[in-house]
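Lesson 9: reading folded outputs for more than one chain in a single document. The general rule is that every protein is listed as its sequence immediately followed by its structure tokens, and records are never interleaved. Here is the first one.
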Amino acid sequence: SGNAASCEVTVLPTVLTLNKTATTIYVDANETLTATTTPDGATVQWTSDMPSVASVTSAGVVTGVAVGTAHITATIPGGGTATCTVTIIPTVASVTTPPSANTLTYTGAAQALVGAGTAQYGTMQYGIGTESTPPGSYNGSIPTGTNAGDYYVWYYAKGNGGFADSAADKVLVTIDKAAGSISYGVTEMTKTVGDANFTNSLTKTGDGTVSYALVNSGSNASINRTTGEVTIGTAAGSATVTATVADGTNYTYSTTTATYTINILATPTPGANVTPDNWSSGGDVDVTPDKNGL
């Protein structure tokens, strides 16, 4: 009797650990953090120091609210804590349907270069740049072009709210040249040595540049190569005028030449009985004196 026994008991603190000490989450996305306690069974409480950036539920589900950084802390009774640093980054908008190049031919008016694209989590933006250089600015309007040529339409999805912009891309659009034409309404005419300078009216559709030339003219005639004005020479004969057109900025020509013929007659001798045959041939003429012997 009177004997006693004792036992010294040491109570160890509960250990708390998290599966992650740092993580990254997109805006509007979520991730579940896992807390482990030793021994098991301790109640874990969750808090966020920046709920406007990242919120957390009682089960440790963290949701990205806005771009930034927050610290999610797990706490157990007795004061044990563990913290995870959460970085919230923007969700990237995407182009779901790229803009499509329109099939275009020059009309003289501005034309929409592409059909509109579509975006997820953003708004489509467009601009005209070069093959290697994006435009200096974008907007939500479909770009237009007037002159024939190649256009590089750049586009991207501008993120809505907390969403990041997508990467920019481009599409090549070509406005083809329109079909031009060139023709003379009068393709043959008769002139006489000594007639005044003249220009035969040329009908031209489009912006091509025209040059003129005379073929087989000899001394019969000469031409202004720029204006097409013809100067009649000193001898009878014939000549062919050729107008040649080169493609312009907005027009192309499948037929590039138009021609007409000039028949040049000799100047008749005053009082002479001139027939069409000997006049046009430039040969001798028969002269019949009138009653006064002239």
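And here is the second record, again sequence then tokens.
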Amino acid sequence: SFEKTLDQQDKTLVQYFDEYKAVRKEIAPHMDSIYVLGLSLQKQSLEDYLQHVTEPVLVKELKVIDQIVKYKIEAGKKVADENTSLANQSTTVMISAILLAIILGTFLSILMAKNISRIIGSLVKESQFLIEAATNGKLDVRADPHKINFEFRDIMVGFNKTLDALISPLNVSAEYMDRISKGDIPQKITDVYKGDFNEIKNNLNLCIDTLNELVKEMDKMYEAHKGGDIDAFVDPQMFTGVYRKMANGINEEVKIYIHIVSDIMGVLMAYSEGDFSPILKSLPGKQAIANEKM
């Protein structure tokens, strides 16, 4: 209704007020930029933005206000002869409103800058708290979102969720490696992981499969030898790397004892037939007791 009254009295003044409202609307997009800079924790960039970007808009606003003031002054001069008292009163009211708008605008700008600076400070403090905890190996430490302004609280919630997603697979991997190192081969990991974590899971499962297969082959060889099949060995072609080396080492160790037993049996067989010419070759270490007994 105020603008309708102005439109009836003076269209030029309405135009100036439209310009004033347009300038005020220009401030809105800057609020989004200030919010983004606040999320990025770039305190210096935020202060620069408030100084170099927001200030020109305020200057533009003051220019429009100055136009309104000048127009009112000129209008007041035109009607000074007819209604000097009314013109002066209107000018005083307008100037007071303008001064009040300037004061309020300046106060809000300062208040907003201080508030954003405080929020960024709290974000940086919580981030440093997480970094220090992780550096000291305290992987279960999380940030407290309630220490952050509610508008930026989701940032800390996101940090905590990221740490949970990162540390949970690491804890599983550490537990499995601990059990494997103690000879307790666990079941394969069935949890669903993505990306690099899925590769870690696949590698651990492959290690579990290989160890289980090696134990299985050794059990088969043991049962075969127990049943008298002394030619049974672990198949090294089923394994790769150090596991193949382990399989070959087991086979070679068994072959050594098989050869010794075969040599002893050969000498004993000759002796049983009355041929005492064979002599058991010298054996190393504690195996030399066989030479003494023969």
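What the second record shows: Residues 1-8 have pLDDT under 50 and may be disordered.
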